[in-house]
Description:
mainly alpha; 3-stranded antiparallel sheet; two-stranded antiparallel ribbon; 11 strands; disordered C terminus; Palmitoyltrfase_DHHC; protein-cysteine S-palmitoyltransferase activity
Amino acid sequence: TISSTAEKVVYLVVFHLSxxxxxxxxWKTIFTSPASPSKEFCLSKADKEQYEKEERPESQxxxxxxxxxxxxxxxxxxxKAIRYCDRCQLIKPDRCHHCSACDICxxxxxxxxxxxxxxxxxxxxxxxxxxxxxxxxxxLFVAATVLQYFIKFWTNEYxxxxxxxxxxxxxxxxxxxxxLFSYHCWLVGKNRSTIETFxxxxxxxxxxxxxxxxxxxxxLREVFGDEKKxxxxxxxxxxxxxxxxxxxxxxxxxxxxxxxxxxxxxxxSGANQxxxxxxxxxSQNRLLASDSQSVESGPEEENVKSGAKRHIIVSLES
Length: 318
C-alpha cells in the first residue's frame, strides 16, 4: 500500500541519515589531529639554553616568568608556578595539558580516548560530542525498530534469535553512551574539561572550577560556534584559537549574595564573532603582575581582609 511504502521510505531515509552522520562524526573525531600550542609559547633559543643550565627551580621559574610576561596565560600550577612542559619545551597555555599517549601538548585537552585512539581536545571536541549524540540516536533507532521482534520472542511467537541479540546490544550501548553524553553535556554547560573537573584550574586568587564559565549560552557557543545551522554538522565551528579564552572578574559574597564584575574590552576574532583571540586587551599577564597591583578596590578589599569567602571567575562580556 501507499502508506506502507511511505513508511519504508521514511525508515530508509532516517536509517541512512543517522548512519552517515554517525560515521562522519566518528571519522572526524579519529582523524582530526590534536591542536598544539603556537610557537609564541615556545622558549627562545637563549632562554631554553639558560633554562637547561639552571639547576635551581627558583631560577628556572624566573626565566619562565620573564618569557611569559607578554603571553595571555592566567592559570598556574597549584604552587603558583608557571606551567611548563619539559617534554615539549614550551609554556603551557591555559587549559593545555601534555598527553602521554600522544606525547604532545594538547590545547584544551579533555581526555585521551582509547575508543577513537586520539586525544579529545579543542580541535575535535565538537566532533566527539556529535559522535556521542549520533551514536545515541543510532542505537535508539535500532532498538526501537526491533522492539516488536523482541516482544514476539517472549510471547512464544516466531522471532529470530539474532534480532533479539541485536536489541540487547543496541539497548546496552544506548544506556552506556547516554551516561557519557549526559556527562559531557554537563561539562559543556559549565565550560569545563574532564581534567578540570578533577583538578580545578588555579588562577591568581586560587583554584576555581568555574574559572572559564561564561554562562550556559556562551559556553555552548564556545564549542559549537555562533551559527546554529552548523551545530549538528561535524565541521569545525568552535570559537577562538584554543590558546586563549575570554575572561571576566566576578566577585561573589556568599553571605550577601551580591555579584560585581569588572568589564574588559575585547578583541574580535572575526567579522561576525565577539569571541576574542586573546581574553583581555592588556598584553601584561595578571598572574605575573606584582602583588601590589590589585584587581579589586573599595569595599571588596575589606571583605578579603575579613576572610570572606570569594571566588574569582574569569570571563568576558560580549
